[in-house]
Amino acid sequence: MFPAGYELSADAGRLDPELIHRWLSQDAYWARGRSREKQDRAISNSLNFGVYDRNCGRQVGYARVVTDWADFAWLCDVYIAPQARGKGLGTALVAAVREHLAPYGLRRILLATADAHAVYARAGFAPLTKPEQWMTLGAQ
């Protein structure tokens, strides 16, 4: 359930790609410096969610998911605009994404965060139980 005055949409046509790029490339530690071309490619190849202010229609949040629709999903680029923070929108966004994916029976939805563990925990996420089994290739 979204806080009063806000709504979620998975309609990619409602997204503001320029705003999303500015948020992520300038304010998000994990995407700082990301090019607009790379961001646009990420949007076009992902399942995207926007959070919107019902009063004015302005986008105030974003998240995207990379998935195979069968077994696995990666939740990433979760962002709430500074002026909209502190209203429970981050937790509501993550919970709505989880609910949207539930009918697909995915075995695992993974994410990474340096500072928002509580937001994700409120939406049911938990630390890896066996991190020693995971490996990565690329930036850490």
What would the keywords be for this entry?
single chain, 140 residues, alpha+beta, 5-stranded mixed β-sheet, 4 helices, 5 strands, globular
Strand-helix topology:
Elements: E1 6-9, H1 17-27, H2 36-44, E2 47-53, E3 59-67, E4 72-80, H3 89-101, E5 108-110, H4 117-122
Parallel strand pairs: 4-5
Antiparallel strand pairs: 1-2, 2-3, 3-4
Summarize the structure.
The protein has 140 residues and is of the alpha+beta class.
What is the residue-mean pLDDT, rounded to a whole number?
Answer: 95
Give the percentage of residues in beta strands: 15-25%
**How are strands sequenced across the largest beta sheet?**
1-2-3-4-5
Distance between the termini: 33 Å
Give me the Rg, rounded: 15 Å
What does the overall shape look like? Answer: globular
* Total helical segments: 4
Share of helix, binned: 25-40%
DSSP strand tally: 5
Structural class: alpha+beta
